[in-house]
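Risk register update: the risk of archive-format incompatibility is retired. Evidence:
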Amino acid sequence: MNDPCICWFRKDLRLDDNPALLEASKHKKIIPLFIFDKSIEEYKDIGEASHWWLENSLLSLNLNLDNKLNILEGNSLVSITKIIKEQNIKYLYWNRCYEPDRIAADTIIKNSMKDLNVIAKSFNSSLLWEPWKIKNKSGNFYKVFTPFYKKGCLVSDLPRKPIEKPEKLFFLKLDTESQNYHFKFKDRKYEWCEKFEKIWNTSEASARTNFNNFLNTGASDYSEGRNFPSKNSVSKISPYLHWGQISPFRVWQDAKNKMKGQHKETFLSELGWREFSYHLLYHYPNINKKNLKPQFDKLEWNVDEKLLLKWKKGKTGFPIVDAGMRELWQTGYMHNRLRMITASFLVKNLLIHWKEGEKWFWDCLLDADLASNSASWQWVAGTGSDAAPFFRIFNPITQGQKFDKDAVYIRKYLPEIAKLPNKFIFTPWLAEKTILKEAGIKLGINYPYPIVDYTLSRKRALDAFKKISN
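Archived output:
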């Protein structure tokens, strides 16, 4: 078509398997557009780590678009309408997002485009199964993962095959005066985020390379190895999936083709958990704000800023917990086993509200995702749909001994206690003074005493949870 069009990028920052871009490729000229819209919760309250990832992703995408990505800041409807009127645009394409405020905003934009005689089309590029399509036999949505995945998703239409990048693409750059987004991390070095550059490459090419490396190495040990943080048995593609450097359809197909047996089934089911989180978000739009189980509104949470800060900084005195929190702070990522351990410690052993942990993860995780982050925290706290039972409390001592038995992970992130023998590295407070001295440790000075007694804190949590269960 000779008429130019707008291809509006959001959480699909790639050229491969991009249905909106494929539709736009039918036009002679494409205006590639990204809008940083602070009326959208994800941008208004964007975490520092996510902001770093987003900006570097936009720089990478711009290179793939021949340096013609148009980046604006402002209200999406106002910005799009302005371009449409100035450039006489008749076609607008985008891929859907599923956060409640985005759904509402997209509906308004589609209706407004009708008034402007503009054809607006949206596509699915982010979810294997759209949340309104998976229903049980009664026509209702699922509240438990296993039937959702096995009886809902797997008996529904299988995920489509990924779409290859269009061969011919011609992009149009608007006047530079209209580019009003100011990069926060491009020209100034932020001490905390600076280290990410040494660890992560946010490009689409790196997403594919990293996932292929996982398929060729860690995938052969995935079903068991994924629980051990010192092993190279996880894909670490969650940030790329969230921001769209890689498509879930591409991941699903490549995993099905290259993984085998239980390793494949386990990995695919983990993709299913991502789908379930969005399923819950769609049907529980306040999942990041309210307990899904209202009886937990009566629970008397502990408000203690000092304990919360020690948890955030990895200074709880429980090595496996501290190692997890240090990994998060240093890398913008945390192994999933550690996410469960650290979250359980906060909400069960410290009895601090899950929202406090959710907010910290939101700020520090490069893969911070409204659906997955909220659903996961509510699962650990016992407040969510299909949540862990309230009496399931991760023991940070035995978890470390079981999943990091040689303390490789602990020693990596807690160098101050690295010289402790394995017998005491999970419980430094039980080591004799001579052993601590030989390891260069002064408890309470260069490594903290435990901030709670595990046994007593477990009993306190059980009593509190039982109280609201009666």
